[in-house]
Write a structure and sequence with these properties.
128 residues; Four Helix Bundle (Hemerythrin (Met), subunit A); globular
Length: 128
Amino acid sequence: MQAVLLATQRATAEDISELGRIIDLLDKSKNDREGWVPAHLQFHIALVKAAHNRFFTFLLDALKDTVERSNRMIIAAQPNRDPNISFARHRAVFEAIKSRNLDLARLAIEDHFNAVEKVLDASLDKAA
């Protein structure tokens, strides 16, 4: 959450351009689960870089393999996943950052986290 809010305030024109490039890549790969995962990771890395916070950059760098594995698990746990909805959540985060709208950024990332949390909760319930 904090990385998104910082990116909304601190992103440079180059950061916005890179996020936009990756959003286009996500759009093109949204129906390809294998293509989505690396593009998704790129998006989150670019988002954290746009926050211009060394701690968050260090943390994501240390955890990026775990983030990638988790993303694969989350996608596998959703056999009926609607890629358009998932893409729309990421686009909303990007648009909020691009418009520098903190309220929209907060709502967009909360929506994203809530969706992921539901998938994780359902997966944990099945495992139990």
